[in-house]
Design brief:
Helix content: over 70%
Number of domains: 1
Order of helices and strands: HHHHH
Strand content: under 5%
Largest sheet: none
Radius of gyration: 17 Å
Length: 143
């Protein structure tokens, strides 16, 4: 496997974490009414979610589903299941209230799935870390 694919997965991890953390902070703040709680939950997620997202990307890199829209939808659902469970547990731990954790987790199911789908579609159009796809495009132009 090319080293550049690892760079791509790290770049996707970082960009998604920025989007996801901002979403979590805002939702947590709205649900708890406390901006500090939102910041604490968002900060905790930076660590757990980056690790989980990177592992998710590595697994999906080796899965044989090639058609992009189906692949992105499947990835959206698998990532959301992992991400929501992580958010529920962290929110419960930080707020001390299991209902708060559940409310934040359920709210972000909707916002994060929409945001994640568009994140995937955007990265699908970017060649960074995909030497093979870039080479194929170059080959087609010269034929």
């Amino acid at each position: 496997m090319a080293t550049s694919s690892y760079k791509r997965h790290l770049a996707k991890t970082i960009t998604w974490r920025i989007v996801g953390t901002l979403d979590t902070i805002v939702l947590s703040w709205i649900i708890t009414g406390n901006p500090l709680t939102g910041l604490k939950i968002g900060a905790a997620e930076v660590i757990t979610k980056m690790l989980l997202y990177y592992l998710h990307e590595r697994v999906w890199f080796n899965i044989g589903i090639k058609e992009s829209r189906k692949r992105h939808i499947y990835k959206t659902f698998t990532w959301r299941a992992i991400g929501t469970l992580d958010t529920i547990l962290l929110s419960w731990f930080i707020s001390g209230n299991p209902l708060t954790g559940l409310q934040i987790g359920v709210a972000e199911v909707i916002t994060k799935m929409i945001l994640y789908y568009f994140h995937e579609r955007t990265w699908y159009r970017i060649n960074f870390g995909l030497d093979r796809r870039r080479e194929r495009k170059s080959w087609k132009k010269t034929s």
